[in-house]
Amino acid sequence: MLTVFEKLKHIAQEIDKAIKNEDLGYSENQNATGDEQLKLDVASDAIIEHTLSDVSLVKQIISEEKEEIMPINPDGKYTICYDPLDGSSIVDVNFSVGSIFGIYEGDNLTGRGLRAAAYVVYGPRLELVVATRGHRPRHLRSGTRGLFSTRSIVQLKEKGKLNAPGGTQKYWSPTHKAFIDSLFAEGYRLRYSGGMVPDLHQILLKGGGLFSYPGASDRPKGKLRMLFEALPFALIFEAAGGEAIDEQGRRLLDLEPEHIHDTTPCFFGSRYEIAKMREAYGL
Ligand code: P6P
């Protein structure tokens, strides 16, 4: 696993350089789920594919930007599912964006098959958070000579102060609207940039709160992809002492995608906020 994490540090440095120096324009193509692709999406995906293609531990890679699975080494131990540049639609306004990685055992592309997860934050500083199942996540920062050093071990408090409500409010269910409003009525502060990685990173580093992306009338199954986005962050939140569930109260890490691009409604938070969600949803 350490070899994989070392490769992620190299990927982080290379994509950070691409973001700061390359063209932000749109390519002529769309990704596997029909999203317009930025040239940076394509460049980031290529950096990850090139870097992981010679890692013997890697059996195959699956990118949010591609329809198909890419075989690497038939004797490899892990499948790596990744979103090469999450939030690329806000990179042109100079917001922080990220890459997300899920490291799955063999062909077991389910919550239970997830062994480790990591994400990179391309912001004013280049940062990386890595976690293996059941161990506290480690927060690293890139220094002057491009070397990453550990900054902290990530631990969520029982209750936080931040509320990151995703999706379009006019399409939310009345239950979800009432729940989100109840947190604001308790004094929670709105922290939502439209980038899943920086929004969740902030909650993790500030000790807690709630990030939600519910099912809604426009997107009944939510927007966030299970293999590349929701499940990796679920492992990280649980490893940090929090919870990650869907609208029926199921642990995201108990879910089994039917298709590699499946999405799920998702709630990531400290224990208090997830308990409040269960109460509001009558779970
Ligand atoms: P909305 C970015 O496109 C993304 O996939 C996540 O990074 C982010 O949390 C979400 O979409 C934002 O979606 O509908 O709230 O703008």
Explain what the structure shows.
By secondary structure, the protein is an alpha+beta fold. It has two domains: 2-153, 2-Layer Sandwich (Fructose-1,6-Bisphosphatase, Chain A, domain 1); 162-281, D-Maltodextrin-Binding Protein, domain 2, CATH 3.40.190.80. Helix content is 28%, strand content 28%. The protein has six helices and 15 strands. It has helices spanning 2-21, 39-52, 174-185, 196-205, 226-239, 271-280; strands at 26-30, 36-38, 58-63, 70-71, 78-86, 97-105, 114-122, 126-132, 138-142, 148-153, 162-165, 189-190, 209-213, 243-245, 266-269. The protein has an eight-stranded mixed beta sheet, sandwiched between helices. The protein has a five-stranded mixed beta sheet with strand order 12-11-13-15-14, sandwiched between helices. α1 (2-21) packs antiparallel against α2 (39-52) and α3 crosses α6. The protein is globular. It starts with a helix and ends with a helix. It binds 6-O-phosphono-alpha-D-fructofuranose.
Tag the structure with descriptive keywords.
283 residues; alpha+beta; Fructose-1,6-Bisphosphatase, Chain A, domain 1; D-Maltodextrin-Binding Protein, domain 2; 8-stranded mixed sheet; 5-stranded mixed sheet; 15 strands; 28% helix; binds 6-O-phosphono-alpha-D-fructofuranose
Structural class: alpha+beta
CATH H-level superfamily of the largest domain = Fructose-1,6-Bisphosphatase, subunit A, domain 1
Structural domain tally: 2
Share in helix? 25-40%
Summed up, what is this model?
The chain is α+β, with helices and mostly antiparallel strands. It has helices at 2-21, 39-52, 174-185, 196-205, 226-239, 271-280; strands spanning 26-30, 36-38, 58-63, 70-71, 78-86, 97-105, 114-122, 126-132, 138-142, 148-153, 162-165, 189-190, 209-213, 243-245, 266-269.
